[in-house]
Amino acid sequence: xxxxxxxxxxxxxxxxxxxxxxCASGGSTAGPSGSSGSxxxxxxxxxxxxxxxxxxxxxxxxxxxxxDDDGVEPTASPLPADDPTDDQPFxxxxxxxxxxxGGDARLGLTGIRVGLGEGYERVVLxxxxxxxxxxxxxxxTTGPAQEGSGxxxxxxxxxxxxxxxxxxxxxxxxxxxxxxxxxxxPEGTEVVEEVVYDGVFEGQxxxxxxxxxxxxxxxxxxxxxxxVVIDVVGTDG
Length: 237
Prior knowledge:
It contains one helix and ten strands; from the N terminus they run αββββββββββ. It is mainly beta. InterPro entries: AMIN-like (IPR056303).
């Protein structure tokens, strides 16, 4: 902001002295009362106020989260460039969501986290290795079952979202020895009741997300580090 200062008394006094000297050197006397003049009657110079140009306020910008944030730690995160609809926080539906793995993917699933967003709940699958993961996420009419054996798997919730993650390698097979916990019980959620991980089988892993009911969802991936993110529309979405 530019601050304007009032004229100093010294400058005002100097201007007055110059005006008196000019009158004395001219030897003229004041005219009759009927004479008119354009200046003020007391001969004091009048300061002309100049208006300062309007200041243009620079727009305030909000800091954006970097590419390695996913909305769980911390909560705020960059999401794909989608416009929300009137009744939910992002475009989502009940249809299957499929994406192929890429870049000769060899990844290990090292962790599972659950967080809250505005109008949705988020499950993050942390990965380590090379390439880009793929997935097949959908609701199925059959209950969860282990790959290979077909044994049933118990998952809390009235609905189960199946997420098959592809592009994986066995733990310790040149990728990582760290593996995610088999069961994750989130705190403070209303939609996600449990997440169950069944390990790697033939380059893919089954992850079951137990929900209170079938809800619209979307899946996308983030990089550096690699993650698969599942957003499920919440109770206030």
